[in-house]
Amino acid sequence: MPVHTKICGLSTPETLDAALRHGASHVGFVFFPPSPRHLDFARAAQLAARVPSHVRRVGVFVDPDDALVEEAVASGTIDAVQLHKTAASRVAAIRARSGLESWAAVAVKTRADLDAARAFAGAADRILYDAKTPDDAKLPGGMGLRFDWALLDGFRHHLPWALSGGLDPANVGEAIARTGASLVDVSSGVESAPGVKDMDKIGAFLKATQS
Ligand SMILES: O=C(O)c1ccccc1N[C@@H]1O[C@H](COP(=O)(O)O)[C@@H](O)[C@H]1O
Questions:
Q1: Taking every annotated instance into account, which residue ranges of this chain make up the domain N-(5'phosphoribosyl) anthranilate isomerase (PRAI) (predicted)?
Q2: Does the interface predicted TM-score (ipTM) exceed 0.95?
Q3: Which one of 130, 168, 185, 198 is the catalytic residue?
Q4: What is the pTM of this model?
């Protein structure tokens, strides 16, 4: 079964084009000012225009208010929202209001954390299992942290799901084999510095998902 891949936090035409050239099924644009990958909507529009219609453009948000999501929808830059630190009731409301495919990020450190995914059944279209970042971390994702994939063993998923958190070209093959993920998501694992995507690493990552 082909594995789908999201390259997240893209911010330049060159690195976006590298992701597209190497077969990414999804590209991610971050709308969260504390992130080194944050984009304004004008910049996102320039990038989004380069993306062919068969590739999904995912907007990454952290508990956004309605105005921010409305601005994103109006900008025409995204096909889906990825919502971090957002309660199930808010995910459902954003999904209903925006009409966009909605992903709920679930921060995982222990098996008990996985149970939070159940609350999103009926509220989200997909769960993104991501590593939990420390309480005092500036970002709830995009920090290259990985969780113990064995926690997913035997877990009954209530929604389609994707795997993220600390993936890189060297470990993504093992991650797919170990978890059975059919969609993987990477940000810092294909960077040379925070927020600086590396075209060679993007190519290597996408190649590793196909072998
Ligand atoms: O990438 C960011 O800056 C970011 C900011 C706020 C929320 C999520 C963010 N990134 C997402 O985090 C995961 C894992 O990233 P990494 O591969 O471990 O660096 C990924 O889904 C990004 O979309």
A1: 6-207
A2: yes
A3: 130
A4: 0.96
